[in-house]
Amino acid sequence: MFEVAHTGFDDALISLCARVEALVAGSLAGVTLCNRARTEIERALFPSLPHSFADGLTHSDLQRHNTASVRAITTATTITCVDLASDEFFDPSWRNHCLHHGVRAMQSRPIYLCRPLPYGTFVLAFRERRPKICWDMALMDLAADGVSSAMQRKLNS
Question: Are 147 and 13 in contact (CB under 8 A)?
Answer without folding.
Answer: yes
